[in-house]
User: Fold these one by one.
Assistant:
Number 1:
Amino acid sequence: MSRFPGFSASYQGAVLIVLPVLVLGLAACETPVPEQGLPELTFAHLKPIKLNVATIEVVSHYKQPLKPPNVEHLFPTPPLKALRRWASDRLRAEGKSGSARLIIKKASAVETVLKKKTGIKAAFTKQQSHRYDLAVEATVEIFAGGRQRGRASAHATRFSTLSEDASINKRQRIWFDLTEALVRDFDIEMENNIRRHLGAWIR
């Protein structure tokens, strides 16, 4: 006797075979998008700034809020991490006494949701949905004989917008490129100011 009244035995068999295939198909649709491999952000290719001090320290006075509108903690390379890497790659202690300190005062990234246009024309146009504003600020201080002997500061800002149809990987790439450009701007200003204000401490 048939287990499903009104169905032939052969049709019931087809049902039992098709159901697993449908389940496998649904599972395949949930495959996550593979993450892209972003390069490491370094400054090792640049000539180091040699300072006539025995030690170099990095101190951060900036605390990441870890909540909106700040999003720097979500970046592939947060601005704070990029500044620490900058100090490691660019500043080198070449002296026998004294010390240098890089004080990070700001390393933020703020997300703003942009207001979209409405209307028929807007419905057929890809709009910019988010804006990201990045800012870094830091100071290099020189200490010798228990006193501060000089200082040089630099800051930089950058911003970019994101299209409403951008993928997660596209957003991560924009964040990376934005951070790289930001710290490159910082690097140029900081080196110029170190040479201008701390020239006596460069070897």
Number 2:
Amino acid sequence: MKKITLILGAAAIAVSSLSAASGIFGTGVVISNNGTSTLYESTLLGDARHAPNGFTPTLNTVGFNGFNLGTFDTTTSDSLVLNGGSVLTYKNDTDNISGASVFYSINGAAFTEITLGFNEDNVNGSGGDQRWYSEESSVDLLSGLSSGNHTIAVMYEAPFTYTGGGGGSGTHAENNGDSNFTANFTVVPEPGTCALIAGLFGMTFVALRRRQRN
């Protein structure tokens, strides 16, 4: 993985689409929520084309964007781990897709890239449709976060080459119209809760000491 800062505009995406007969038609992110691995659709398809060969994550077709991943208590064994993602691409004529990646950011920080491996050709019997997939990463999304609400944003890229019209290369991007796909989660205990617990513990300790003295 490598950390980069991305600035993607609608104009750049349009150039990619106009100069090539290829693109991205499906995306998803793989997150392990307290040990349960789920492939959340970012680009909604709602069918088995997202399901990767050789892997068995639970497929969530409700959609990642705007999803609430839940509440996680860092004083327990709660976990929220980013494992990877899925990108579905198509290619026609002289175009060729050479790879795919998912990028993630926590609370507006710089995006970090996770490279996806090739998973299947001719997805669902459609010539030129390919799936890129990985769930081998183990990014602890709770690490270093303070109590409160947090946001994870994801976007996707697929570089391509083409030999028609003089040849060239570019990168397809799927970033929800420059807004990225975002989901929320909460880390507890809140500072107020911690203080309350500490206060209750302190009062209990004092009461026990007084009882022992009596």
Number 3:
Amino acid sequence: MFFKSKKKEEKKELLMQKNIRVGCASEPQAEVIRKVGQMLVDSGYVDQPYVEAMLEREKTFSTFMGSGLALPHGVEEAKKDIKASGIAVMTFPDGVDWGGNPVNVVIGIAGVGEEHLEILSVIADKMLDEAAAERLAKGDADTVYQILAGEE
């Protein structure tokens, strides 16, 4: 399974089912970033300052990836606030305005070292599959978990 932390002493899953929220009501972009970031904090992946670093990243560089996907993550200086690599997912059937772009899937990312690049790569591959992207945007929490954890 891809979404497992590589640190042997940590063994924390990168995606926990409790960090998947589907069918969310549309909210302002900054509020969505705060909520997905707080899930990372509450699960022990990051310290609280990382959430502000996610908002800071958005001010300088949009995390909109196309295909209805946004991948908010912290600025480089916030790496010190990451305790373990992890992701949190929120889906929005009616979409969220992400700097003028419609977004249905938001995946908050925290990656130790260069792990964030591998995480981004796997998510991008999943989103290139239109059927998987559609199921990710409209599926229940189990479906989202299965797609991102590579169990289907």
Number 4:
Amino acid sequence: MDLKRTSRAVIVNGAIAFLVGALMIAWPGATAEVVVRIFACWLGLIAVTSIVLAPRGGRTGGLVVRSLLLIAFAALIFVSPMFFAAFVTIVVGIAIIFFSVLAISSSLFIRQLGVSAWWVLTIIGAIGIAIGGFFLFAPQAGITALIFTLAVFIGIVGIALIALGWRLRRLDSQMARDPRRHNGGNGDTIRGEIIE
């Protein structure tokens, strides 16, 4: 595995993710349509950089198919951003309500078992139902809240990817300095003793 090229791809994707997240947060006057299109462009860039910066021998058919599907998905989002935003908001609202109802039913079950803190789960479930209803019945505000949450998440993912890329780069340099490592042209081998 070519760690240097892999680390470069991870760092580039992390930097792109961080910049997109920061742009989505720093541009509060932008409409949801513009922000969703920025997200679509990010998905397309991720797909392209995954193919371009893939390690030698890493451009498998699976990677190409995944990247092409991601590009098609990004194009679909770019063409109809408000449909995508409304769809995701409704799905998130339904999911929140579903898991909140599940939390309330679980709290009633653990109350029968004699757990004294059952009411905490009930309160969390009730708050979740209110938040899910907010996403369903105030979709424009739900879209804005969802976009802000998504922007923060993308920024955090970007920072994590950059950190991972630097660790991979450091690991590659440590492996290159290892005196037991020998490259005979047929791949990497490590010389040492066999312990039984």
